[in-house]
Design a protein that fits this description.
single chain, Jelly Rolls, nine-stranded antiparallel sheet, 3 helices, 9 strands
């Protein structure tokens, strides 16, 4: 199981109801910066936050990693929507059935790992993450979002050539004797 930082299309990560829209990208951090609390995302109007995370290729997600604030600004509910082309906004979130809807652990000081059912998250190209239900109800704060899992297909190198068995079908050798005799054989009964 690998940390999937390099598989996230970080420049296209975006969020809804954030004080600073670009703060959604700052939640995706390298592994060695996961405990950093200098960069975070806060909500604006209420405690609902939506973050859309696209991947550069399909991935199999095995765990979601979160570092949340503590106290009144810590979200208590998490909903995940997989493989949506755009972010799932708040009105759609009420109508759509999430792939995962859980209550988050309260009072965690560090990064918390939430295991995912691999079968439900086996071929993921994007994820919409909804966080809400803080104790205070006015604001949510998140410091870090990360994922563990595997890339589904290794990326092709730019220098890899396409392997073509017979460049021209007319150049492929044909055994006419074997071709005729194959049609004349009877099957055993």
């Amino acid at each position: 199981m690998n940390y999937l930082y390099s598989e996230i299309d970080r420049y296209n990560v975006h969020g809804l109801n954030l004080q600073e829209p670009e703060s959604a990208q700052e939640l995706i951090k390298p592994w060695d910066e996961r405990e950093d609390v200098s960069k975070y995302a806060d909500t604006v109007v209420d405690d609902q936050m939506a973050i859309h995370v696209p991947f550069v290729q399909n991935v199999r997600l095995k765990a979601l990693l979160l570092k949340l604030s503590r106290g009144d600004t810590a979200p208590r509910r998490l909903r995940l929507y997989a493989n949506r082309p755009n972010i799932v906004d708040f009105s759609d979130a009420e109508d759509l059935r999430p792939h995962l809807d859980i209550t988050l652990l309260a009072g965690q000081a560090g990064v918390t790992e939430y295991p995912l059912r691999t079968a439900a998250f086996a071929n993921i190209n994007s994820l919409s993450i909804h966080l809400d239900n803080t104790t205070g109800g006015d604001m949510s704060r998140v410091y870090f979002i990360g994922f563990k899992g595997d890339a589904r297909t290794p990326p092709k190198e730019a220098t890899d050539k396409l392997d073509v068995r017979a460049e021209n079908a007319a150049d492929a050798p044909i055994d006419r004797v074997a071709e005729r005799s194959a049609g004349a054989q009877t099957t055993a009964r």
